[in-house]
Inverse folding.
């Protein structure tokens, strides 16, 4: 029963036979208190009637189904409401993060990532220039020989560790099985080095090699230096994430932690994948007084399959710089680099070898490959910049919360 009908009923209860229409307004104003009381009495009656009927229905259901079924029904309703509340809370948290972190300003530029497409070609140039004999055109030893490499045997040949060639800023630094490493001293920070690593793993698939580095939960099982690693924020339409990473340091040193923006692109036409990490700041990952926040870190890895993404055989080039905020003597810095870097890449190689989509097999050491191709549903449009669509998605997301 609408409020208008209630008012009309109350007006009819008065003697309206002599009341003309022009005087209706005056009548309503003069008798507003009594009309209000009559409306309230009618509303109370309706509410009491609905409650009484509801109680009768509940009593009937209770008799038909019993106390246990009645309790299960309410438990199910309670669980459903709690689930909706939790999901709503997550969405609100994500929305708040979007408002605080501007992806348009902090997203890694795709042009910058594509500029690294030729990194592996640059590795060939460095190999010919710095570690290949100009006479016999065989490989020169860097620091120590590796198995299955045909080295130069010319008279007077010496290791070329840290030997500068012409104006090339990169010098040979390290050689291990299937790994070559160069380094370059920073002009603005003497004593600090940027590293360029080349690797070739004939038994690893390119898609698995990428997945291992994107799967942060799996990384917790094989990266012994990762005290904590978690997702802070994400921009799925550009394959971008903000990650928090705490790195274990020796005793008497504070652990280093990082907040960095990670983005990857996959180009099936050029048969190349690129992962880039750049340091950033995020309101959801504030600094801690018990850890040292690294402010200068960058890393780009270019991955190419020997044949196809889902077949064994992968080549990669990783270029990175990390300033831990501590002046380390040269010999100690060299020792850390020559031990920690190969150890990390060895663990990465082993983790990639046993990685499968089935989580139960990831730690079993088995070599069963992923049955579902990583690029089964992949489209080139997924990795092509379309900022109009991205902006439309963000606006739609914000309008959802504003209209809720």
């Amino acid at each position: 029963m609408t409020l208008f009908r209630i008012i009309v009923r109350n007006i009819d209860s008065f003697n309206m036979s002599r009341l003309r229409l022009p005087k209706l307004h005056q009548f309503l104003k003069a008798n507003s208190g009594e009309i209000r009381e009559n409306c309230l009495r009618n509303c109370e009656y309706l509410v009491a009637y609905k409650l009484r009927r509801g109680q009768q229905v509940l009593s009937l259901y209770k008799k038909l189904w019993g106390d246990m079924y009645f309790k299960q029904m309410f438990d199910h309703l309670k669980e459903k409401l709690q689930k909706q509340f939790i999901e709503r809370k997550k969405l609100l948290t994500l929305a708040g993060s979007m408002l605080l972190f501007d992806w348009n300003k902090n997203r890694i530029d795709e042009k910058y990532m594509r500029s690294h497409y030729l990194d592996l070609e640059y590795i060939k140039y460095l190999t010919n220039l710095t570690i290949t004999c100009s006479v016999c055109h065989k490989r020169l030893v860097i620091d120590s020989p590796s198995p299955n490499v045909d080295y130069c045997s010319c008279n007077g040949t010496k290791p070329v560790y840290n030997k500068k060639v012409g104006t090339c800023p990169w010098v040979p630094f390290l050689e291990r099985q299937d790994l070559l490493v160069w380094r370059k001293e920073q002009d603005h920070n003497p004593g600090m080095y940027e590293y360029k690593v080349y690797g070739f793993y004939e038994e690893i698939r390119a898609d698995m090699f990428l997945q291992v580095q994107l799967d942060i939960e799996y990384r917790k099982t094989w990266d012994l230096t990762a005290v904590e690693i978690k997702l802070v924020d994400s921009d799925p339409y550009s394959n971008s994430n903000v990650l928090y990473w705490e790195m274990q340091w020796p005793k008497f040193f504070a652990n280093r932690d990082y907040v960095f923006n990670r983005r990857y692109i996959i180009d099936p036409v050029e048969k190349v994948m690129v992962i880039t990490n750049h340091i950033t700041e995020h309101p959801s990952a504030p600094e801690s007084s018990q850890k040292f926040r690294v402010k200068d870190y960058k890393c780009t890895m270019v991955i190419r399959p020997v044949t196809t993404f889902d077949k064994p055989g992968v080549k990669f080039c990783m270029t990175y710089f990390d300033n831990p905020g501590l002046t380390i003597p040269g010999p100690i810095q060299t020792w850390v680099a020559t031990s920690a870097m190969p150890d990390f890449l060895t663990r990465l190689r082993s983790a990639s070898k046993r990685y499968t989509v089935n989580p139960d097999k990831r730690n079993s050491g088995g070599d069963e490959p992923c049955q579902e191709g990583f690029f089964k549903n992949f489209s080139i449009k997924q990795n092509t910049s379309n900022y109009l669509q991205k902006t439309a998605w963000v606006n739609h997301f914000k309008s959802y919360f504003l209209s809720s």
User: Anything to note?
Assistant: The chain is about 40% helix and 20% strand. Strands lie at 171-176, 179-185, 193-205, 226-235, 240-247, 256-267, 272-279, 292-293, 296-305, 312-323. The mean pLDDT is 79. The chain has two domains: 3-65, 110-388.
